[in-house]
């Protein structure tokens, strides 16, 4: 954001700002449908417009993917992002097949294992008194949960996590995936290919085995579709949850009165999670391709344009949220339920239940073990076009 003016909005920089929302607020008011001429993309920012856009399948297509990173925006996006990079009827068919295996019951049954994984990292971290919340906990726990879900053997999990982490690293000044990210993607595709072969030979009770046998009207997923889906689980479910946990702790620590309330009453953990999702959504921007002209307040974005759904701004829309720029875990429940951190419509986050369960287990465990948490050093923001959160968050805890 060169001078804070919405018309110089740079979608890569907002994730690094500590307080980008006043600019977003102006953007919503002055240019609800904004065109960045330099990079030739459009941005849609009001809550009501996004609500409509998420459900306008005839106007907004996912077939070029959901990221404007030059290497991601192309017709082959679905090869690495599965049905996230597809439109109906293909998206509907695959999502239905996946939903046969990735059921609410499977997620609920995972609860005891999620609790064990969380406690494993949290106990070690809390025992130190001071630690990096991301490095020791939030950056490790979500990927291990995905590995547990998929049936990745425990002995392989550290290595899988190492490559999954490389996938999301972006370099300052480089507006694309760095070479290490490509290498990590190739490694993960190879690994998941081997995992599929192994499960075909020896099925287990994991999600991969369930998906191998999932059928809809006599159709099954091909190996290519399966590997792309496993890769999507990493892209969609790992760093988003890491960022949620980091943003939760940072924002609570910035509000000592709310922090005291949560540590005194664990019943406030759930609203704490939801307000974090609203206030600092992990995925701030989602890209689409317009397949028809789209008009807002007399401004028309033509068919064939790149457009961003600005979730971060919509979640701070004063038309929907009272004192939208304030972090407030006591926000009215009905109002809070309007946040769109998990998207909407046919691509609504398939892992929303799992993300909420993970965050709930982790933060309840934190509150059980500690009487408070504070930031004990300079947090480092994560460099990314659309993901908002921390790469490092030094904290100090008081144990109970
Ligand atoms: C805080 C954590 C998370 C956030 C904020 C989040 C956010 C989102 C959003 C905004 C979308 C919609 C994308 C679009 O419309 O283009 C999405 C889709 C998706 N998410 Fe999540 N997600 C989270 C965690 C997870 C987890 C833990 C999983 C699974 C392990 C997951 C799996 C998926 C999948 C498979 C899709 C694609 C759905 C489709 O295209 O039909 N997500 N997520």
Per CATH, the architecture of the domain at 85-283 and 341-399 is Orthogonal Bundle
Note the gap between the termini.
43 Å
H-E string? HEEHEHHHHEHHHHHHHHHEEEEHHHEEEE
Mean pLDDT over all positions: 91
Principal-axis shape? globular
At the fourth level of CATH, the homologous superfamily of the domain at 85-283 and 341-399 is: Cytochrome P450
CATH class of the domain at 85-283 and 341-399: Mainly Alpha
Estimate percent helicity. 40-55%
The radius of gyration is 21 Å
Structure, explained:
This protein is an alpha+beta fold and 400 residues long. It has a domain at 85-283 and 341-399: Cytochrome P450 (Cytochrome p450, Orthogonal Bundle), CATH 1.10.630.10. Helix content is 48%, strand content 12%. It contains 18 helices and 12 strands. The strands form 4 sheets. The protein has a 5-stranded mixed β-sheet with strand order 1-2-8-5-3. A 3-stranded antiparallel β-sheet has the order 4-12-9. A two-stranded antiparallel sheet has the order 6-7. β6 and β7 (299-301) form a beta hairpin. The longest helix has 23 residues, at 179-201. It is globular and about 60 Å long. Mean pLDDT is 91; it is low at 1-9. The structure holds protoporphyrin IX containing FE (HEM).
């Amino acid at each position: 954001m060169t001078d804070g003016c919405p018309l110089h909005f740079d979608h890569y920089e907002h994730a690094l700002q500590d307080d980008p929302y006043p600019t977003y607020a102006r953007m919503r008011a002055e240019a609800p449908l904004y065109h960045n001429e330099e990079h030739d993309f459009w941005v849609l920012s009001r809550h009501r417009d996004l609500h409509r856009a998420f459900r306008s399948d005839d106007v907004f297509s996912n077939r070029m993917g959901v990221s404007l990173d030059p290497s991601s925006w192309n017709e082959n996006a679905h090869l690495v992002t599965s049905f996230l990079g597809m439109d109906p009827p293909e998206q509907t068919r695959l999502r239905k097949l996946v939903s046969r295996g990735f059921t609410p019951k499977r997620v609920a049954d995972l609860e005891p294992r999620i609790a064990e994984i969380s406690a494993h990292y949290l106990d070690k971290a809390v025992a130190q008194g001071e630690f990096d919340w991301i490095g020791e906990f939030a950056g490790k726990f979500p990927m291990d949960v995905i590995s547990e879900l998929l049936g990745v053997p425990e002995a392989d999990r550290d290595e899988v996590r190492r490559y999954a982490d490389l996938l999301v690293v972006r370099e300052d000044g480089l507006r694309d995936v760095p070479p290490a990210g490509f290498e990590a993607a190739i490694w993960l595709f190879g690994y998941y290919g081997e995992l599929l072969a192994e499960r075909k030979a020896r099925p287990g009770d994991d999600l991969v085995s369930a998906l191998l046998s999932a059928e809809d009207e006599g159709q099954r997923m091909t190996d290519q579709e399966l590997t792309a889906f496993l890769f999507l689980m990493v892209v969609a479910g790992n760093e988003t949850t890491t960022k949620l946990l980091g943003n939760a702790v940072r924002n609570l620590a910035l509000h000592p009165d709310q922090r005291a309330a949560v540590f005194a009453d664990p019943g406030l953990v759930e609203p704490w999670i939801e307000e974090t999702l609203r206030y600092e959504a992990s995925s701030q921007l989602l890209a689409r391709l317009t397949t028809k002209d789209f008009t807002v307040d007399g401004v028309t974005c033509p068919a064939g344009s790149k457009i961003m759904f600005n979730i971060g701004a919509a979640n701070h829309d004063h038309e929907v949220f009272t004192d939208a720029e304030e972090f407030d875990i006591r926000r009215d429940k009905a109002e809070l339920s309007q946040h769109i951190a998990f998207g909407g419509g046919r691509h609504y986050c398939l892992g929303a239940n799992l993300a909420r369960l993970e965050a709930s287990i982790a933060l309840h465990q934190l509150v059980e073990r500690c009487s408070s948490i504070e930031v004990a050093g300079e947090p480092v923001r994560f460099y990314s076009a659309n993901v908002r959160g921390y790469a490092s968050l030094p904290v100090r805890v008081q144990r109970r």
